[in-house]
Amino acid sequence: ITKAIDPINPEEEVAILRYYQHRLHDICSRFNLPPSVEPLAQWYLLRLSLNCSFMLMDGKYVMVICALIASKVE
Questions:
Q1: CA gyration radius, the chain
Q2: What is the chain's percent helix, strand, coil content, to nearest 5?
């Protein structure tokens, strides 16, 4: 017997976004990226979360990709 998983509510979605924003800060500081990269990576993460739910994408990979793209742009 399988149980249906309830979808997450908006408050939980915001909590997940905040968690990945904190982890993105840790990644940027650990790799000694320039100070201008982190705000841009945070902006990319926010824009992606507006277009697609974290239930559909893996946040670990998304935050690393945001940091990579921001470092390439800067």
A1: 14
A2: 70, 0, 30
What is the phi/psi pair of residue 5, to 5°?
-90, 130
Encode pLDDT of 48-60 as tens digits: 988 888 888 888 9
> Does the pLDDT of residue 43 top 90, yes or no?
yes
Residues with Cβ within 8 Å of 21's Cβ and at least 6 positions away in sequence, in order, are 42, 45
Backbone φ and ψ for 60, nearest 5 degrees, come out as -60, -50
Phi, psi of 8 (to 5 degrees): -80, 150
One-character DSSP codes across 12-46: HHHHHHHHHHHHHHHHHHHTT--TTHHHHHHHHHH
Q: For residues 45-63, b (16+ Cβ closer than 10 Å) or e, as one string?
A: beebbeeeebeeeebeebb
Residue position matching structure tokens 């690393």: 64
